[in-house]
Design brief:
Largest sheet: 3 strands, mixed
Radius of gyration: 22 Å
Number of strands: 9
Strand order of the largest sheet: 1-2-3
Shape: elongated
Helix content: 40-55%
Strand content: 15-25%
Length: 249
């Protein structure tokens, strides 16, 4: 990953390299340094957060130069990331990798800076101060593939590269959809989604829509000719299903 951080001089050096490489203007660099002074965090992360550098250009630069500029952090990501600090579901969902913990600070590899509440949430989760550092997505994907389980719960498989997978039925492992009316409101989101999908297949639906309603959860099954069948489910199931679908997407 990333930039060498040997005090203020190291940060300025990284900024000068970015200017020389044409990734950021001097005015943009000044904005990033000021944001870093006020908000902490790495210079690259603050430049990305302010829109002073484009993600694709910065990722390419880091892939080409990261080994030289921050060999210790790159080595930590490749061989011994602090995976015990972040649950697999969250790491996959947000595309982040905990690189190391040192002196009460968690260095967190991220590819983007477009989730402003992520860093405070991780600090609350871990009890550590979190310092986000920008890293190429391919490096984070390698950590997720090598050090985290892909199947975060039965039938829910997150792939670091390629499409995520939701298993509707697999008899040898006992993964079978239940009837919606047989599920408890507090049943896992994967069980609810498996049940809804199976019901859609049974009804011959081509599409289905899941949305909250005043009385609970509204599911609409739509057939090839536009016919629609509605089903109501407990309101409490919606939040978990929504998170699961967002993660799989």
């Amino acid at each position: 990953m990333m930039e060498r951080r040997n005090g203020a001089d190291g940060r300025r050096l990284f900024g000068e390299i970015l200017v020389e490489a044409g990734l950021v203007t001097r005015r943009g660099l000044a904005s990033g340094l000021e944001e870093q002074r006020q908000r902490r965090g790495s210079l690259g992360y603050n430049l990305l957060k302010l829109g002073q550098v484009t993600p694709a250009a910065l990722h390419l630069f880091l892939r080409q130069s990261g080994d030289v500029m921050a060999p210790d952090l790159v080595e930590a990501l490749r061989t011994s990331p602090a995976v015990d600090r972040i649950p697999a579901r969250l790491a996959h969902f947000y595309g982040m990798a905990p690189a190391r913990v040192r002196d009460g600070v968690l260095t967190l590899a991220v590819a983007a800076a477009d989730t402003p509440r992520l860093i405070p949430a991780v600090e609350e989760l871990t009890g550590l101060r979190v310092e986000p550092l920008v890293c190429p997505p391919s490096w984070i994907a390698a950590v997720l593939a090598s050090f985290y389980p892909a199947e975060i719960e039965p039938g829910v498989i997150y792939r670091a590269a390629g499409d995520n997978v939701f298993v509707l039925s697999e008899g040898r492992r006992g993964l079978r959809p239940m009837l919606p009316e047989a599920l408890r409101p507090e049943a896992p989101a994967a069980e609810w989604l498996r049940s809804i999908c199976a019901e859609g297949i049974r009804r011959g639906a081509r599409t289905l829509q899941i949305e909250p309603a005043r009385s609970g959860l509204r599911v609409a099954f739509r057939g090839a000719r536009g016919e629609e069948h509605l089903m109501s489910l407990p309101r409490g199931a919606y939040a978990g299903i929504a998170r699961l679908l967002e993660g799989l997407a």
